[in-house]
Design brief:
About 10% of the residues lie in helices and about 55% in strands. By secondary structure, it is mainly β. The protein has one domain: Porin. It starts with a helix and ends with a strand. The relative contact order is 0.15. The N terminus is likely disordered. It comes from Solemya velum gill symbiont.
């Protein structure tokens, strides 16, 4: 009995400071069982058949744990912070990712100012449309369509305006810190504009960065509309001046044959994608389709992907799903009358719990 009382007292002592500081623990556990079938056909000048696979896998998909909090500073202003990390629930790898968000900032009636690793305004405006209706699954639209700038960015200094009749603006700058000879405060600039009201979402994104020889630039438009149980979303993005590199994450190709380099620069590209979600009580049917292509130098590369899925919500925090996805990557080489194609088909059964 005494041990129980002591344990309770210790737990209360530890929890009290966190409660007073307004700390919230949150996260997501997402695990899937996948059947992956990848076929590769390559030209005669190199062999990547060893990357072919037809196998079952267990994957942790975007599982994470995070801590966030705030402190009231008075006069309508508060300090805010967030620290988040990935956790691999498939193999138990703790703190599996250091690429998630972590920042400190101030917020008030004037808007929000943050410094640290965080999502860019480009990403926020693009993804706010809900285009990723099966995000983190095998039918993730960003992966199927190779949408750009989807990770968080280190050393970002960001400002987000308050909503003005449904309109919100955001801008971020990132110092180069000596990378590629860049030592300025705003070597990367990212901006986003969002309008959201009455089921309509409209977003516009822009991002540019200093780079050796080029200033890669991205711009994009996104939109969605919700009508009762149906939601439709679409995005379009354009990339120029060396902004796009179509990487295929399913396999490792020989050096120089799966990236854009000096000898084979991919200087221009575009991406578009659409998705739809129809909700019926605790169930939802979802579909997505996207296409990416980049052109320049000696190679033209493109990728097309689509996916469908059925989702069932056991509660507001727990759901299970079955999805099917298919994507095709093609590398057309102008020197050799042949092409490399990679076809990947995946059937995935998964479960998601949020806390």
């Amino acid at each position: 009995m005494k041990k129980a009382i002591i344990a309770a007292a210790v737990a209360a002592a530890i929890a009290a400071p966190a409660a007073n500081a307004g700390v919230t623990i949150y996260g997501q556990v997402h695990v899937s069982i996948d059947s992956v079938d990848m076929d590769v056909s390559s030209p005669f000048w190199y062999d990547i058949s060893s990357n072919m696979k037809d196998q079952w896998e267990v994957n942790s998909r975007g599982s994470r744990i995070g801590f966030k909090g705030s402190e009231d500073l008075g006069n309508g202003m508060k300090a805010i912070w967030l620290a988040e990390s990935g956790y691999d629930f498939a193999d138990g790898g703790a703190w599996a990712s250091s690429t998630r968000q972590s920042y400190l900032g101030l917020a008030g009636d004037w808007g929000t100012f943050t410094v640290g690793r965080q999502y860019t305004p480009y990403k926020v405006a693009m993804m706010g449309s809900g285009i990723e209706n099966m995000g983190d699954t095998a039918a993730d639209t960003s992966s199927l369509a190779n949408i750009s700038n989807q990770g968080s960015v280190s050393n970002a200094i960001a400002y987000v305006s308050p909503s003005m009749n449904g309109l919100t603006a955001a801008v971020a700058i990132v110092p180069g810190e000596g990378s590629g000879g860049n030592d300025g405060l705003a070597d990367t600039i990212s901006a986003g504009l969002i309008y959201s009201a009455n089921g309509l979402y409209l977003g516009a994104s822009y991002q540019t960065a200093n780079a050796s020889g080029d200033d890669p630039t991205w711009w994009g438009l996104s939109a969605s509309y919700t009508m009762n149980n149906l939601k439709i979303a679409a995005i379009y993005e354009d990339m120029s001046d060396g902004a796009t590199v179509l990487n295929v994450n399913d396999f490792s190709a020989p050096s120089g044959h799966n990236s854009c380099d000096i000898d084979s620069p991919c200087t221009d590209g575009e991406t578009w994608a659409v998705s739809a979600t129809y909700t019926m009580g605790n169930n939802a049917l979802k579909a997505t389709y996207g296409h990416h292509e980049n052109n320049g130098g000696d190679d033209d590369r493109e990728q097309t992907g689509w996916g469908v899925g059925g989702f069932h919500s056991f509660s507001k925090r727990t759901q299970a799903y079955v999805v099917y996805s298919s994507k095709e990557y093609t590398d057309n080489n102008n020197f050799i009358p042949s092409e490399e194609t990679i076809d990947t088909d995946t059937i995935s059964v998964g479960m998601i719990h949020k806390f």
